[in-house]
Amino acid sequence: MAVLLDTQAFLWMHAAPDKLSESAKSMLTDPVQEVFFSAISSWEIAIKHALGRLDLPEPPIRYVSSRIASANLTAIAVEHIHALEAGALPMKHRDPFDRMLIAQARGLDIPLMTSDRVFDHYDVEVVWAHR
User: Fold this and answer.
1) Which residue among 60, 77, 97, 103 has its CA within the 20 to 30 Å range from the CA of 84?
2) Can you tell me the distance from the alpha carbon of 95 to that of 11, in angstroms, rounded to the nearest whole number?
3) pLDDT at 131
4) How confident is the model at residue 24, as a pLDDT?
5) Contact 123, 103 (CB under 8 A)
6) What's the pLDDT score for residue 90?
7) Which residues pair with 129 in a beta bridge?
């Protein structure tokens, strides 16, 4: 089994685990489960922090890196194919971060863990993160 975290699920995992459903917590703590984290989410966190829309206890470069390591997440890069797939998605949602995560999950053929209902509008398997 494998799952790709969206940015909110990653943040909840570390700062607000009580917001996660029991099934999401179980997946995230299962040693057999491979949990992927995209560079797209790192970029989103850095941008939101720089704009003052996301408070973190330390700079994003340390916060994200230390949490990836402590949770034993598999970091994935953004590839050209992901960008092209994201651009080809129907324009049901304009958030470039979400569109890229959808493209990556589809490309890896794994579910995306999220709490955002907008993902219902796309052909991507979803694992609901919220209670």
Assistant:
1) 60
2) 18
3) 65
4) 94
5) no
6) 86
7) none
Domain locations in the chain as residue ranges = 2-128
d(CA 118, CA 70): 29
Query: Which tokens in the block code for residue 67?
Result: 């949490």
Q: Is 72 left (phi over 0), alpha (psi -120 to 50) or beta?
A: left
| Domain 2-128, CATH homologous superfamily name and number | 5'-nuclease (3.40.50.1010)
pLDDT at 78: 94
Q: What angle do CA 8, 104, 114 make, to 5 degrees?
A: 25
Residues 129 and 12 sit within 8 Å (Cβ to Cβ): yes
Q: Cα separations (Å) of 23 from 7, 19, 53, 63, 77? A: 18, 12, 29, 25, 27
* Residue 72, pLDDT score: 94
Task: Give the integer Cα–Cα distance in Å for 41 and 44.
Answer: 5
90: left (phi over 0), alpha (psi -120 to 50) or beta: beta
Give the pLDDT confidence score for residue 93 in this predicted structure. 79
